[in-house]
Amino acid sequence: MTCYAICYLRDVDLGDEIVEYIDRIDETLAPYGARWLVHGGRLTPIEGDWDGDVVIIEFPDTATAQAWYDSPGYQAILPLRTEHSRSVTALVEGVPEGYRAVDKLAQLLGRAG
Fold first, then answer.
1. pTM of the model
2. Distances (CA, A) of 111 to 46, 69, 84, 99, 108
3. What is the C-alpha separation between 94 and 110, in angstroms, rounded?
4. Domains of the chain by range and CATH?
5. Whole-angstrom Cα distance, residue 9 to residue 21?
6. Which residues contact 36 (CB under 8 A, 6 or more apart)?
7. Among 82, 75, 74, which residue's Cα sits nearest to residue 17?
C-alpha cells in the first residue's frame, strides 16, 4: 500500500542549514523510489489557520518510507530541518484504487464492505 511522508513546516529559518537540507534531500530519497507530490506549493486555507508549508512525498509502502526516514543519509541531514524550523511529520498509509469512504465506515463498524 502506498505511503506518504507528510510534513507541515512553520517558522522556517531560510538560512544556510535549510538550503543545505534542500540541496541534499533528493539524494536520500532516490534509493527508496520516492517522488515529490507537494513541496511548499501555494496553499489556500479554507478552514482553520494555516501559517506554514506542506510537504508530501510518496513511497511505495510504509516499510520503505520508514527505511528512508531511518536511513543514515536522511538522519545525517534531519537536524538541518528540525533545528531550523517548527514542524510536525508523519507517515500515513494511502488507500487502494477504487476506495470509497464507506469502506472506512465498514472497517470502523466491523461490517462487510
1. 0.90
2. 33, 35, 46, 16, 8
3. 20
4. 3-109 (3.30.70.100)
5. 14
6. 56, 57, 58
7. 82
d(CA 24, CA 59): 18
Q: Give the three cell numbers for residue 89.
A: 511529520
The count of other CB atoms within 10 Å of the CB of residue 21 is: 19
Q: Do the Cβ atoms of 6 and 56 come closer than 8 Å?
A: yes
| Cell reading at 52 | 506554514
pLDDT tens by residue, the chain, 113 residues: 999 999 999 999 999 999 999 999 999 999 999 999 999 999 999 999 999 999 999 999 999 999 999 999 999 999 999 999 999 999 999 999 999 998 888 888 887 65
